[in-house]
Amino acid sequence: MITRRNALKSALFASMAAPALIRTASAEEAKPAVAAGEDLSKLPRRKVKLARPPFVHEHDQVAKGGPAIIEFTMTIEEKEIQIDDEGTMFQAMTFDGSVPGPLMVVHEGDYVELTLVNPETNTMPHNIDFHSSTGGLGGGALTLINPGEQTVLRWKATRPGTFVYHCAPGGPMIPWHVVSGMNGAIMVLPREGLKNDKGEPVKYDRVYYVGEQDFYVPKDADGNYKRYSDPGESYADTVEVMNGLVPTHVVFNGAAGSLTGENALKSKVGETVLIVHSQANRDTRPHLIGGHGDYVWETGKFNNPPEKDLETWFIRGGSAGAAIYTFLQPGLYAYVNHNLIEAVNLGATAHFQVEGEWNNDLMQQVVPPSPISQG
Length: 375
Ligand SMILES: [Cu+2]
Hints:
The protein is an alpha+beta fold. It has 4 helices and 21 strands.
């Protein structure tokens, strides 16, 4: 008989077996690579205090000075979170306590130096795969840590753009950890800042990070969402739902409603906002209802000129895109995944609350709703 405990054990074994071998090999390979690299001792070091999404830590858009080593620390937290307003509870796995993990910002040519901590109170091994880094499973091979361990990974940010990072501890643990919330994004800015399609500088007044997450929550015989005491207990049931490929929730920033109402994103008419949008597992199609993407890096990679005047853009599962918009009208804007079933019924909706003066030239109600005139 396959008990939950056995299922978890075999899953954990599958997760541990391959990466454990890789870790041994890669640790040795890492030595000559470091020796052959630049002398990093002369580079300045800067410590960054990460911000909880949708907010982003302080950063310069145009780099001041040459490359630096940018130090980050992230603590992995396994914790139960509420993911909708019906009170559905979910055993999440997180980078730094939030779904998604924080947006990290550096400049092209900088070195990212991450201290990753897996506290003893966690139940599972974790690691981090940076899509923006080069080699060693994106760092996954060098960062697999058990509860009670920490590790430091350094990599050079050679490609400008927005990129996903996620946990990838091997085998079936990979998709499970990702859809449990262990993903986030990094933005590698060009040293001279962003440019439009003509190569002219583009600046933003605010930046928000929206991490879209698909959740697969099992139901009991009565159709109610089940609650579990820890991630391991939920594993066997959750995999069954996952393998059906139909998410029960598609949300922004960890829960339905996390960016609406009181938590609406704020802006003003005339302000230019950069929205970084990631989806680590599944395709999505952001749309700002009543607004546009003035410049959109759909694939998120800043060496490619942005597209202009988009209505909806496409973020491939496993990537992060960036869109810039200057608000022209005040009001409440919904920012949605334009699969509207996912936006309205499953949770993928955020709000922008924009202050300022209405522009009648752009839109005016000529006749308010009234009875149909006769004759
Ligand atoms: Cu993990």
